[in-house]
Structures are given as C-alpha cells and as structure tokens.
Design a protein that fits this description.
Layout (H helix, E strand, L loop, with lengths): L1 E5 L2 E4 L2 E10 L2 E7 L4 H5 L5 E4 L4 E4 L1 E6 L4 E2 L2 E2 L4 H10 L2 E9 L6 H12 L6 E7 L5 H12 L4 E5 L10 H14 L2 E5 L3 H13 L6 H5 L3 H18 L3 E3 L5 H12 L4 E5 L1 H5 L2 H4 L21 H10 L4 E2 L32 H10 L5 H15 L17 E11 L18 E11 L2 E5 L2 E2 L19
Parallel strand pairs: 1-5, 2-6, 7-10, 10-11, 11-12, 12-13, 13-14, 14-15, 15-16
Antiparallel strand pairs: 1-3, 2-3, 3-4, 6-17, 8-9, 17-18, 18-19, 19-20
Helix pairs in contact: 4-5, 5-8, 8-9
Bound molecules: N-(aminocarbonyl)-beta-alanine and zinc ion (3 copies).
N-(aminocarbonyl)-beta-alanine binds next to loops.
C-alpha cells in the first residue's frame, strides 16, 4: 500500500514546512518540498492520496507512561491493552510505553512474561514496556541486565506507597548502580511516602475522609524533597534519572538545578497537572475521587512553572500516566476513606489535543508540541528515529491534524473504557483527523479502521541522551 499525504504542513521537532509525504508499506518512503513538484510524479503510483490542505502532518504521538490493566488496591485499571491502545489511536498517539508491575516476591522475568501475555495480540498500536521494580534483591538486580537486553531498559521505582511499591533509599541506590552499569534508566515516582503515610493516618483519625484530603496529605514540599533525594542518589551512583509525573514547582526547581549543574536528570509532566487543580479534588459529593492520582493535582499557582519548564526543556516529555478507574464501581471503593480511592486518571486519548491548547495559547511552539509529545519520548526511550519523526525510513506513524476544528471533550464521545472524563465539557481547538500506524490507516474521518493485534512489541534501544 502506497499512501501520499499532500498539501499539508509537516511539523517535526525542528519546525514546520510545506511538504508532501510518501508512505510505502509500513515506512515513510520519501518527503518532498511542495514546490519540488515531486508529489505530482508520485500521485499516479499511490493507492490512496490524502489531501491534508490546511492540516498539520505530525509524527504519531508517543505516550511513554500508561497503565493498562494495572493491578491496584484489589482492582485493575479499566482499560485493557485493546481498549486503551484504541483510545490512544483515536487521539493521535501511535505508541505507548506501559509499565509491567513486579509484585513483591516475584521475579522481573516472570513479570515481563505476564505483561507480554496481556498485550500480545491485543494492541491496536505499537507498544513497549518499562519495568516497575518493587522488590530489590540479588535476583532482581541480576534480572535487570536481562531486561535491558530484552529491550526493556527503563525501571520505575517508588519513594511512595510504603508496603506496596516503596523502595528504601538503599534499595534505590543498588538499582541505580545497576542502571549505571547497564545503560538502563531509572524512572522515579518521587514523593516522600513515609511522611505522607503519617499525614494520611492523622487525617483519617481526625475524620477528614473526603477526596480533597488526598491532595492535602501529599504536600508539594514532599515531592520536592523526594525529587532532591532521588537526584542526590543518582549523582552518587552516576545513574541517569527520569522523574515521572512531575507536578510541583518545588520538584521542578530541583530538576532545573541538577540539569544546570550538568547532571543527567530528566522529567516529564502530564496534562492533568497543566490543566486541572486541587479545586477539582475538592468537588463535592465525592466527585473529587475522579481526580485522585499521585502526585495529587496541585494549586493552580504551579502551572505557570510547568509551562515554563516545558519551554526550557527542564520538563522534556509530556506523558499521560493514563490509569483509569471507573467512578461508579472503582473510585467508589474509597467513599468514606480517601486512602482507599484507586489512584489514577484517564487521559491517553486527549494528550495531543490538550497540548495543542498550549500551542493555541502561545505557551508552546508548534515544533515544541511535537517534541515533547513524540520526538523526545522516542529519543529518551530508545525508539528514535524509527518513531518520533517524519523522515524517510521511519515508521509511517503519522497524524493528520486539523488545527481549527472544534470539539468538546466528554465521556459520551471518548473511547477510553471509563465512565467519566476528567475534562468533561472542555472545549478544544483542533482535532485528529487521520491516523496511520505503521502505514495502516487506523483512524479516518471519525471511524476506526484499526484492530487488536496490529500493534507490535517494540524492543527498545538505550536512552539516546546518555553516553
Ligand atoms: O496515581 C497514579 N499516578 N497512578 C498510577 C501509578 C503511578 O504511580 O504512576
Ligand atoms: Zn507513579
Ligand atoms: Zn504512572
Ligand atoms: Zn466500569
């Protein structure tokens, strides 16, 4: 199948240009400047010509932080690999990197097998895995080497959730030493869970049980502190460090300082921290439970810092941390005890659109939008230039985006398998029109043409920012 996408504005991390794109099979075959006239020559040989006049032609989005079917607190996040990757495709994301979760007492390799079994044959778009390390011991540390060799070379650790995922500073140090020795990348959930658990216990003992307490018992200072501690441990071990779901200005300050000093420290933020706030957690009648995720939504004052961080590259990536739990059956588990509300929010479908609002508002340039949503995640997680750009030889993961269309986000129209939208009623400028995943048109003119099993596992190279 040869597809010609013509008359559009091709946007990559280096800028926008008037160009036509020829797709042959699963790859991008060629790119030609509009005035070269080459598209006229290609046109008769194309099986399909997509007219992208007035549209952006973007590399497919890469969401480097999702949790499909993730076990948490006795339940599972509501999107399967099939529903979650389908929703991602609808929103212009053509690659996800999901987290395999090591349960305490189990091995990394059996965990990886388990996650392959969940995803294999079920994904509508390409996917990779990170590994959540929750049980650091000699076997685990040895297995980290095997994971790196198997293309799963990023390891998430938790300074939060004592008794579940939490790792001590000593355990983190050991894992970082292993990462430094193997070229792996440690991804850190940086919140001081030991202190937080005390604040949570005090709130519950005082009868403060509403969802907003989730935010009040996880103050931004304890994200800043944990981020600084993770940075110190990374420095001591010579390990690179990637801070996940950064939400607080205090944490960003720590990242900025480390980067200014030349340390290999990177961070991502998520759309919910750019657009939602602790006011959403304080919604009455338990509605705040829809917004419970960790780190929690912050006061709005943090948001200008996050936008600035995205511009200065102290925040390099925007991922969703997509981890949906239904309001009705699942968030309900925490009525009367906010600490039992499953942590996580839906978002995999809306990342490209929400970030485009940053372009519309003048917070981000067009090129920077593509960079934080696609190109840098590809480089950070060893997928570039196969993914993350529009260039000859790259996978034909392409989004045709209408920058002037209007849409309203709603659970009534989204494709995620969850019964609410965190952005219900939000009006968006821009809309995904056509999506190609490895040369196959999976979304077009409001219809889904993809299917479970099209998506392939991506064995990733090492992080390309590290020498
Ligand atoms: O609340 C969240 N973020 N749930 C997903 C798990 C994690 O910590 O990323
Ligand atoms: Zn986390
Ligand atoms: Zn997460
Ligand atoms: Zn449900």
């Amino acid at each position: 199948m040869r597809i010609l996408i013509r008359n559009g504005t091709v946007v990559t991390a280096t800028g926008a240009s008037e160009a036509d794109v020829l797709v042959d099979g699963e790859r991008i075959a060629a790119l030609a400047a509009r005035d070269s006239g080459l598209a006229d020559a290609w046109s008769p040989t194309a099986d399909r010509v997509i007219d992208a006049a007035g549209r952006y032609v973007l590399p497919g989005g890469i969401d480097a932080h999702t949790h499909m079917e993730m076990p948490f607190g006795g339940t599972f996040s509501a999107d399967t690999f099939e529903t979650g990757t389908t929703a991602a495709a609808w929103g212009g994301t053509t690659t996800i990197i999901d987290f395999a979760v090591q349960a305490k007492g189990t091995s990394l390799l059996s965990t990886l097998d388990k996650w392959h079994a969940k995803a294999d044959g079920n994904c509508a778009i390409d996917y990779g895995f990170h590994m959540i390390v929750s049980d650091v011991n000699d076997t685990t540390l040895k297995e980290m080497e095997t994971c790196v060799d198997a293309g799963v070379n990023s390891f998430k650790m938790f300074m939060a959730y004592p008794g579940v995922f939490y790792a001590t500073d000593g355990e983190i140090l050991l894992a970082m030493q292993k990462a430094a020795a193997t070229g792996g990348l440690v991804m850190m959930h940086a919140e001081n869970g030991i202190a937080i658990d005390q604040l949570v216990a005090q709130a519950l003992a005082a009868g403060r049980t509403d969802p907003v307490q989730h935010g009040l018992t996880r103050p931004p200072e304890l994200e800043g502190e944990a981020t600084s501690r993770a940075i110190a441990l990374a420095k001591v071990t010579g390990s690179p460090l990637y801070i996940v779901h950064l939400s607080a200005a205090q944490a960003l300050d720590a990242v900025t300082e480390a980067r200014d000093a030349g340390q290999n420290v990177f961070a991502e933020t998520c759309p919910q921290y750019l657009y939602l706030s602790i006011e959403d957690l304080a919604r009455p009648d338990f509605e705040g439970a829809k917004y419970v995720a960790s780190p929690p939504l912050r006061p709005r004052e943090h948001q200008p810092s996050l936008w600035r961080g995205l511009r200065t590259n102290d925040l390099s990536v925007v991922s969703t941390d997509h981890c949906p739990f239904c309001f009705n059956e699942q968030k309900e588990l925490g009525r009367g005890d906010f600490a039992k509300i499953p942590n996580g929010m839906p978002g995999v479908e809306h990342r490209m659109d929400l970030l485009h609002q940053g372009v519309v508002a003048g917070e981000l340039s067009l090129a920077r939008w593509v960079e934080v949503a696609s190109t840098t995640p590809a480089r950070m997680f060893g997928l570039y230039p196969r993914k993350g750009t529009i260039a000859p030889g790259s996978d034909a993961d392409i989004v045709v985006y209408d920058p002037t269309a209007r849409q309203t986000l709603s659970a009534a129209t989204h494709h995620m398998n969850v019964d609410y939208s965190a952005y219900e009623g939000m009006e968006i400028t821009g809309r995904v029109e056509t999506v190609l995943s490895r040369g196959r048109v999976v979304v077009d003119a409001g219809a889904f043409h993809g299917g479970a099993g099209h998506g392939r596992f991506l064995e990733r190279e090492l992080c390309q920012y590290l020498s």
